[in-house]
Amino acid sequence: MEHPSLVPALLLADSLSGDPAGGEARPGGPVRRSVRDWLVDGVLFVVAVLFGLLVVAEAWSRPDPPTDGLLFLDLVVGSLGCVALWGRRRWPVGVALLLALIGTFSDMAGAAVLITLFTVAVHRPWRTVALVAALNAAAAGVYVFLRPDPDLPVPVVGALLVVLTAAVVAWGMFVRARRQLVHSLRERAVRAEEEQRLRVDQARQLERTRIAREMHDVLAHRLSLLSMHAGALEFRPDAPPAEVARAAGVVRASARQALEDLREVVGVLRDTAETGAERPQPTLSDVPALIEENRRAGLRVRAEYRVADLASAPASVGRTAYRVVQEGLTNARKHAPGAVATVTVTGGPGDGVTVCVANPAGLGQEPDVALPGAGTGLVGLLERVGLAGGHLEHGWTADSDFRLRVWLPWAADGAAA
């Protein structure tokens, strides 16, 4: 039966156990052992045999050793019990009950009894564990009666074996709870990644919906104006040449503006909850005011403008550039409190507009109020810039600065490219 000197065997069983976390072996089901499983089972088998032989040798060397017949039976049946360890993954309860029966008289099977009891505690419900543990405790009582220790009183030996059984069960159930916790945390991490992916998809869809709303409102006006002047030309072919030229100029300008509005699909319609009215759309010339507003809010910003005339930028370019600066300064305020942000706006007709917002890591300060965020701001910004025909880069530079850099097209004739 169990012996206090077999505790190291159980330690090894815990450290090398390769069973799935919190999983339960299917009785009679097929078992596919990995290389690690074969290694673990082999090591546990060798440990059980070696500890059994040591305990049998210790009993045989006593002044009043057991009879030769009992020792022979112990070696044979106990060795078969150790061999039964190879089936603990497929039939954990059955192997545990068999070894509990063998443990009523065998020292050779002592380590194997502890290993199978530990396996049941890890992979079976508490009611099954309690039943197997009770049978092991009863087997311990029979063992003490059949093979009393000459150096210790029978009650002491029995109490030690019961305590050892309870410790093995408690340890196995602790390992089970720990593995289930790890498994649960892993599932939570997978769910969190999936939820983040869904939020990103929703942000993209929301941005596209807003784009479609603005295109409907803006292009409907442009195209209706174009249709009106084209109709006038169609129904008044005898109009004076000056009037025809003027109408043709309006048609050309309206068509060009409609094309520009079609290309500026990243503009977002901002409706108020109360009136549903459209807010004035920002332009590139509004960027200095945005920076001053952030400065008044406590953000330290260095700004540099290398554009000849900010107000001359096309509306679509200015609006997108404004949103880039707005998002970059918002991220700097949220993630790098106390740092100095740098905003650079360069370019012109034919070269396009380049907007760069950079900031170092925070200076260890914490904002007074945590700013909420879903982590989808850059996703929407990337959607805006890409649909406008530009490109966006963001990430950490070699100087440990976080940089948001956007290039937007600006045609040489002043229209959006």
Automatic annotation (TrEMBL):
<dbReference type="GO" id="GO:0000155">
    <property type="term" value="F:phosphorelay sensor kinase activity"/>
</dbReference>
<keyword id="KW-0597">Phosphoprotein</keyword>
<feature type="transmembrane region" description="Helical">
    <location>
        <begin position="69"/>
        <end position="87"/>
    </location>
</feature>
<keyword id="KW-0902">Two-component regulatory system</keyword>
<dbReference type="GO" id="GO:0046983">
    <property type="term" value="F:protein dimerization activity"/>
</dbReference>
<keyword id="KW-0812">Transmembrane</keyword>
<keyword id="KW-0067">ATP-binding</keyword>
<feature type="domain" description="Signal transduction histidine kinase subgroup 3 dimerisation and phosphoacceptor">
    <location>
        <begin position="207"/>
        <end position="273"/>
    </location>
</feature>
<dbReference type="GO" id="GO:0005524">
    <property type="term" value="F:ATP binding"/>
</dbReference>
<dbReference type="InterPro" id="IPR050482">
    <property type="entry name" value="Sensor_HK_TwoCompSys"/>
</dbReference>
<keyword id="KW-1133">Transmembrane helix</keyword>
<feature type="transmembrane region" description="Helical">
    <location>
        <begin position="38"/>
        <end position="57"/>
    </location>
</feature>
<dbReference type="Pfam" id="PF23539">
    <property type="entry name" value="DUF7134"/>
</dbReference>
<keyword id="KW-0472">Membrane</keyword>
<dbReference type="InterPro" id="IPR055558">
    <property type="entry name" value="DUF7134"/>
</dbReference>
<dbReference type="InterPro" id="IPR011712">
    <property type="entry name" value="Sig_transdc_His_kin_sub3_dim/P"/>
</dbReference>
<keyword id="KW-0418">Kinase</keyword>
<feature type="transmembrane region" description="Helical">
    <location>
        <begin position="129"/>
        <end position="146"/>
    </location>
</feature>
<dbReference type="InterPro" id="IPR036890">
    <property type="entry name" value="HATPase_C_sf"/>
</dbReference>
<feature type="domain" description="DUF7134">
    <location>
        <begin position="36"/>
        <end position="179"/>
    </location>
</feature>
<feature type="transmembrane region" description="Helical">
    <location>
        <begin position="152"/>
        <end position="174"/>
    </location>
</feature>
<feature type="transmembrane region" description="Helical">
    <location>
        <begin position="93"/>
        <end position="122"/>
    </location>
</feature>
<protein>
    <recommendedName>
        <fullName>histidine kinase</fullName>
        <ecNumber>2.7.13.3</ecNumber>
    </recommendedName>
</protein>
<dbReference type="Pfam" id="PF07730">
    <property type="entry name" value="HisKA_3"/>
</dbReference>
<dbReference type="GO" id="GO:0016020">
    <property type="term" value="C:membrane"/>
</dbReference>
<keyword id="KW-0547">Nucleotide-binding</keyword>
<keyword id="KW-0808">Transferase</keyword>
